[in-house]
Amino acid sequence: MYLTIGETSEYLEVSEAFVEKLIQQKKIRYVFDGESYLIFQGQFQTHMKQLEQYKELIQDILNEPIPEDPDVKDED
Asked: 34: domain CATH number?
């Protein structure tokens, strides 16, 4: 499936200017049909999977309880 620059920016949750910059730097694959750039959505699958795994890892770290310090002395 091919997306326009606007649709790609929404899909990746980045600005249109950033997508245009990636096109100019030839960091993403695209097709120019004479009027607009069309970007293949499938090239972002690996990125999206890694992003989801990273979010899960961060959530696991945040949900881990803080262990009690055995060296803490009760001074009451």
From this structure: 1.10.10
